[in-house]
């Protein structure tokens, strides 16, 4: 059986990120949802109205969760040190992401967090959800299979569904025999973004796109590498390969035709 300490240890590595929340009451209700399920890490990205008395009123005793919640300007900043980022969203054809149901997502999150990885579950705006650019920062999507004839799920209710599934997964998980070594953890979000920036530069340097728009190829490559979840050492190897490719491209350019 998992102990309270092992459950708490995993929870300490899980953050719930609310992006562009429009109604402060949803922030308070989300804080309450987290605390009831043993979670405490709430991160707010560019909320429209916060701090606000309505948030504290609906937190119903989870004011400590609100007090500890950082308010950041961008999602990239909120997940920079994360090894796994899941975007909670309705099904969308805008950005092709692998989709998980809440229970499968919770098992994945708990396994990663139990090994010491920082993990984020990201929720978008009440009316419009996450933007394409924000979805691009996610490794995969989580879809709550609500009634298709009435799928209007309140933001705080969606947070409660995922928080509940995380609690079940934590209670069911066996404690790890030993912490995963940091070198075996998936690369952080910041490390992956630096790799993607170098990859884009390298593809330009070797004229990979041949005049075609680079966005489509980069979207596919991002999905491929995010799905593979390379660890920090593997990313360093990949970046070494890119550095050599860039060096050879420079030499070829210096030699001329």
Description:
- The longest helix has 24 residues, at 232-255.
- The protein has 257 residues and is α/β, with parallel strands linked by helices.
- The relative contact order is 0.15.
- α2 runs parallel beside α3 and α2 (24-36) packs parallel to α8 (155-172).
- The protein has helices at residues 4-11, 24-36, 53-59, 63-67, 75-78, 102-114, 132-136, 155-172, 189-205, 215-228, 232-255, and strands spanning 14-19, 42-45, 71-72, 84-88, 99-100, 119-123, 140-142.
- The model is unreliable at 176-183 (pLDDT under 50).
- The chain has eleven helices and seven strands.
- Helices cover 50% and strands 11% of the residues.
- A seven-stranded parallel sheet has the order 3-2-1-6-4-7-5.
Task: Summarize the helices and strands and which ones pair or pack.
Elements: H1 4-11, E1 14-19, H2 24-36, E2 42-45, H3 53-59, H4 63-67, E3 71-72, H5 75-78, E4 84-88, E5 99-100, H6 102-114, E6 119-123, H7 132-136, E7 140-142, H8 155-172, H9 189-205, H10 215-228, H11 232-255
Parallel strand pairs: 1-2, 1-6, 2-3, 4-6, 4-7, 5-7
Helix pairs in contact: 1-6, 2-3, 2-8, 6-8, 9-11
């Amino acid at each position: 059986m998992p102990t309270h300490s092992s459950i708490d240890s995993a929870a300490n590595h899980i953050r719930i990120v609310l992006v562009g929340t429009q109604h402060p009451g949803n922030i308070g209700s989300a804080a309450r949802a987290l605390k009831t399920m043993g979670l405490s890490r709430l991160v707010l990205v560019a909320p429209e109205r916060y701090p606000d008395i309505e948030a504290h009123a609906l937190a119903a005793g989870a004011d400590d969760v609100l007090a500890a919640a950082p308010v950041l300007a961008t999602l990239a900043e909120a997940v920079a040190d994360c090894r796994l980022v899941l975007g909670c969203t309705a099904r969308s054809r805008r950005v092709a992401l692998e989709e998980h149901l809440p229970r499968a997502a919770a098992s994945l999150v708990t396994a990663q967090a139990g090994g010491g990885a920082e993990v984020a579950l990201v929720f978008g705006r009440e009316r419009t959800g996450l933007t394409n650019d924000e979805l691009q920062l996610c490794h995969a999507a989580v879809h709550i299979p609500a009634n298709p004839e009435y799928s209007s799920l309140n933001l705080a209710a969606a947070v409660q569904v995922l928080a509940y599934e995380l609690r079940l997964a934590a209670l069911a998980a066996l404690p790890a025999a030993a912490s995963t070594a940091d070198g075996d953890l998936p690369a952080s979000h910041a490390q992956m973004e630096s790799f993607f920036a170098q990859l884009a530069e390298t593809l330009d340097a070797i004229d990979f796109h041949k005049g075609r728009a680079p966005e489509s190829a980069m979207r596919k490559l991002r999905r491929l590498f995010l799905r593979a979840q390379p660890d920090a050492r593997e990313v360093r190897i990949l970046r070494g390969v890119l550095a050599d490719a860039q060096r050879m491209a420079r030499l070829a350019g210096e030699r001329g035709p």
